[in-house]
Structures are given as C-alpha cells and as structure tokens.
Amino acid sequence: MDRLFAGTTQLSAALQPLVLAAERTLGLDAAKRARTILRVDAGGGSLADVNWALERGDQVHAKDYSTQRATALAASVTVWVDDPRTPGRQAGWVTIPADQYVRPVRRVAVRCQKQDGGWGYGVIISALPPRDVILLTRQPLDRATDPDAALLAYVYFYDQRGGACETANKGDKQGLGLTKRNKKRFAAQQMLMLLGTLAHNVLLWARHWLAPRCPALARYGLLRLVRDVGQISGFLHLDAAGQIVQVVLNRAAPLASGLGAALGVLLADDGIAVTLGET
Question: For all residues of the chain together, what is the average pLDDT?
C-alpha cells in the first residue's frame, strides 16, 4: 500500500490516516488489531498518537517524539545496562509512572555517547509484555524473567523496524530510479508513484515465478532484477496477428540459459517458444 503526501508532511500528521488505510487494505478488525504491532519511530511517538493507537486496542512499540521529555525521563533511570551489541549504548528502565497513557506501557530509556563525550537520549514506549519481545527477538523464553535481558529485548525489537519496508524502499530507489523522476503536479506524481508500485510488484511476481527453475534469481533484489535480468538483450517474434510466438535471448548473457529454461516452462501453455541465439 502506497500513499502520497505533500513533501512538507511529517509522520506526526500522517500516522493516523496511514494506519487507518492499512487497516482497510489488510481487513484488520478489533481482534486482529490486538495482535498487530505498530512499530514506529519518533515521528509517530507523540503522546496524542500513542494514546490514539492504545485507545483503539493496537499494540504499540514506538520512540517518544519529544527529545526533551526523553532526557527528563532518562534522569529517572537508576541502573544503566551496557548493550553488548552496540558499544557506547546503554539502556535502563524509566521509573517515573506512565500515568498519561490510556493503557499500561513500559518505557525504556536509551542513551548513546556522542563524540563530544556527552549523551544523546531516547525513550522507547511499548505496550508489549517482556515475553513477547523476547520471542520477537528470537531469544530463549526463560530470559523473559531476566530484567536486563528483557530490557535489551525492547531495544533490539525497536532496532528491527529498519527491515522489510526500508529495504524495499531502498531497492525501489536503486532498481527503479524512483527518486530520479518527479512531477510538478500532485496528481501526476501520484500516477508516477502507482506506476512504480506496479513495476515493483511485476518484478517480484516474476522472481517468484522464475526462481523455482532459475534458483539464482531467488537472491536478487530489485536492482539486480532490473540490471541483470531485465536488460538481457534478445528478440521477440510475432505472428500475423501481432501475438508473441517466440522469445530469443542472447546466449552470451550469464543468466540466459537458466532464465530461458524457466521462461520456456512458464510460457509453454501460451504456445510461446523460448530459445537462445546470437544478438
């Protein structure tokens, strides 16, 4: 699901319409929302947005919007725990009651040492119990009763937000050149965005269809699909009615043999022959 907003729109203004649109697209009712986690960065971590999600029954795992509030909350930490995965980073439980939230939440302060020797602070707000974050970070369940392990699990689960969506966006930018094409009119930019979504989906569908008989494609992202697969040279032979009857791939291309075999099976039911030739 893609939504286009004005270039000046911040996540604090876009979070609620994005969540509601996602719910419609995914068909999330109240029961499903209770099992769905909203993991967002500080732009969606305002008190109003977090309470809006909590009041609706959503599971929230977010970073506090306010840097000043995070610094004040971090001052209540009594014990800081070193993060063994990230040198110079520490975490600790916020001890000030979270009375301003409409449902119980746990808050974890995180501080990272800056180049000038000072500390930068952030606070993670989570409606998830320790057992869930331990499981979601793929750790042994018995660690849920270890306060330090649970503490760091909240941090690691927040770190994981930089996963599928960000990777897909990066792949689209590199493979499809999304940032190299812009339109002045909003409607035109919307159409460009939808065409990019279509191209993204077609490439992923093609990878899914072809990978069983050309396994190398299973590891390819958008950039390699466009560069190494989409740009293989060749010919299309058409019949008198303008229908494709034969695909000829350049046999010199590294993937031509495997791709030709996979395409041959995929297109056989349509009566299209796939061969290798000189181009």
Answer: 86
Phi-psi region of 57 (alpha: psi -120 to 50; beta: other; left: phi over 0): left
Q: What is the radius of gyration, based on Cα positions, of the chain?
A: 25
Q: What is the pLDDT of residue 279?
A: 57
The two tokens of residue 35 are 């099992």
State the Cα–Cα distance between residues 105 and 99, nearest whole angstrom. 9
Sheet of 119-126, strands arranged across? 37-40, 59-63, 119-126, 106-113, 89-93, 81-82
Residue pLDDT, tens place only, 135-148:
999 999 999 999 99
pTM (whole model) above 0.70:
no
Task: Give CA–CA dist 269/279, Å, rounded.
Answer: 26
Q: Out of 63-77, 90-104, 217-231, which region has the weakest mean confidence (pLDDT)? A: 217-231
Ordered by start, the domain boundaries in the chain are 11-161, 164-224, 232-279
